Amino acid sequence: METALFGSFLSAMATVLGVVPILFVRRLSELWKDVLVAFTAGIMVSASTFGLMPQAIKESGIISLSLGLITGVLLLDLIENNIPHIDVENKPGFTNMDSKALLVLIALFIHNIPEGLSTGFSYASEQASLGPMVAIAIGAQNMPEGLILAVFLLNSQATRRKALIMAALTGLMEMVSAVIGYFTASYVQNVVGYGLAFAAGAMLFIVYKELIPESHGHGYERPSTYSFIFGMLVMVYITQVYA
Predict the structure, then answer these.
(1) Is 125 left (phi over 0), alpha (psi -120 to 50) or beta?
(2) Could you tell me the pLDDT band of residue 103, with boundaries at 50, 70 and 90?
(3) In a domain, 25, yes or no
(4) What is the mean pLDDT of residues 106-123?
(5) What is the pLDDT of residue 100?
(6) Which of 3, 12, 26, 134 is the most buried (most CB within 10 A)?
(7) What is the pLDDT of residues 151-198, one digit of tens each?
(8) DSSP of 142-167, one letter per residue?
(9) Do the beta carbons of residue 155 and residue 27 sit within 8 Å?
């Protein structure tokens, strides 16, 4: 349990780490944003394909993999359809920053629940290396997310201090849901494989619905593609280290 809590803490606080560059640079280059997002997408695809899905089949079989994967996709689809996105291009001048900040905070709270569950399910698996691997993948996704959140808030006339606090709060929700996922998988029989498949589905939905389109919309498709492949390779090497 202590290992799962520590892993989920590091993964969640990666959101705060993503805010750090904004303490020194207010504007975010589109090139670097696209490259970072594509790199994250590669890490998440690799973790899902080479880590979560094979272990889900091993622990619960192909039927549980299919049901869990579809459930993860459908839940993320439901969230994406009903929760507003962060628009990094918003220009300064919101007259009601507190309301806008609260809306963004609630949205990220809900978005982070499936990510936290994914980490918790992974630490409950029989494969000891799976938890750290998924925590790294989720943490890698949280860093550019924190950076984008900070840019949004600064463009909305928020302070850098508020950006850091909001990033920490969204990470806290991820930790809570990771603990829930861990205890659920530990005490409910046969749910681990289903939970791992759920995590894979959630990750893949995020990648194909959000990360890849976001990294290919500003004219930097080629460096983003190389960054995606490099991210996949990095996670493959990490998988071998923990194997």
Answers:
(1) beta
(2) low
(3) no
(4) 80
(5) 58
(6) 134
(7) 767 766 777 787 788 778 877 888 888 888 888 887 876 788 898 899
(8) HHHHHHHHHHHHHHTT--HHHHHHHH
(9) no
Instruction: Return the pLDDT at 69.
Output: 95
The distance in angstroms from the start CA to the end CA of the chain is 20
Question: What is the enclosing helix (H) or strand (E) of 205?
Answer: helix 192-205
Number of domains in the chain: 1
Closest CA to 200 of 85, 87, 50, 80: 50
Find the Cα–Cα–Cα–Cα dihedral 190, 191, 196, 201, rounded to 10°: 120
| Residue 26 counted as domain residue | no
Range of the domain at 114: 1-19+31-242
- In order of 6, 8, 86, 134, 232, the CA distances from 178 in angstroms are 10, 6, 23, 11, 24
Residue 73 in this model has a pLDDT that exceeds 90: yes
Residue type for position 12: A
d(CA 27, CA 36): 15
Task: Report the distance separating Cα 222 and Cα 121, nearest Å.
Answer: 35
Instruction: Count the residues in the chain.
Output: 243
The pTM is what?
0.75
